[in-house]
Design goal:
Elements lengths: L1 H16 L10 E6 L6 E6 L6 E10 L4 E8 L5 E4 L7 E10 L2 E2 L6 E4 L17 H73 L13
Antiparallel strand pairs: 1-2, 2-5, 3-4, 3-6, 6-7, 6-8
Protein name: Fibronectin type III domain containing 4a
InterPro entries: FN3_dom, FN3_sf, FNDC_type_III_4/5, Ig-like_fold
Membrane topology: Single-pass membrane protein
Length: 216
């Protein structure tokens, strides 16, 4: 009947609307890097072709005690740093991808063992790629560069001050010598006048005998 066809059409439509979409695939190649006594970095990969908007990580100790569940969305990160871990302890982690229509299945379990605080970090480990270590190295380089710049600036200022003092001494000496030259001619002018006056006085000195001419 027509009513039966109409009801069948509604049933097919409802099944098409409410059919659950596919969940994203589970992360692969989950690994632990930069392992320390109280922290570790977890990294993973996501198969291409799926839109991933976040991740979730479950962290528990080897004895089964659940410690932490981390969930982040609106991120494309493929790594996460686990802090506040206990030293010399076994841990198990699993990672899930968060897609537009839900979360993926959990990845394979990954086991790792934290170091002791007394243990030294391996010199050839991947800590060279650790952003924290790189940040420390960069800060050291910046501090060294800043110190060099400060020393160079101080040396330049010292050279400028020394040059200024030297020029000031030269100008001061020139001024004093010019003042002496200006004062010298005035004293020399007074001396000839004194001598000339003396000569004049000696020329007409009364003690010099005079010659009288008598006409015959």
């Amino acid at each position: 009947s027509p009513s039966n066809c109409h009801s069948a059409g509604l049933t097919d439509l409802s099944l098409a609307v409410y059919s659950p979409p596919d969940r994203p695939p589970a992360p692969v190649n989950v690994s632990v890097m930069h392992l320390r006594a109280d922290s570790a970095t977890i990294s993973w990969e996501v198969p291409e072709g799926d839109i991933i908007i976040g991740f979730s990580i479950s962290q528990q100790r080897q004895d089964g005690h659940m410690q932490r569940f981390i969930r982040e969305v609106n991120t494309t990160s493929r790594s996460c740093v686990l802090w506040d871990l206990e030293e010399d302890t076994n841990y198990i982690i699993q990672v899930q991808s968060i897609g537009l229509y839900g979360e993926s299945q959990a990845s394979k379990k990954v086991h790792f063992h934290t170091l002791k605080k007394s243990d030294r970090f391996p010199s050839n480990s991947s800590n060279q790629d650790d952003p924290t270590v790189q940040g420390l190295d960069k800060s050291r380089h910046l501090q060294t560069g800043e110190m060099i710049i400060i020393v160079v600036v101080l040396v330049m200022w010292a050279a400028v001050i020394a040059l200024f003092c030297r020029q000031y001494d030269i100008i001061k000496d020139n001024d004093s010598s010019n003042n002496k030259e200006k004062a010298k001619p005035s004293s020399e002018r007074s001396t000839p006048e004194h001598h000339s006056g003396g000569l004049l006085r000696s020329k007409f000195h009364p003690s010099v005998p005079s010659i009288n001419i008598i006409e015959v």
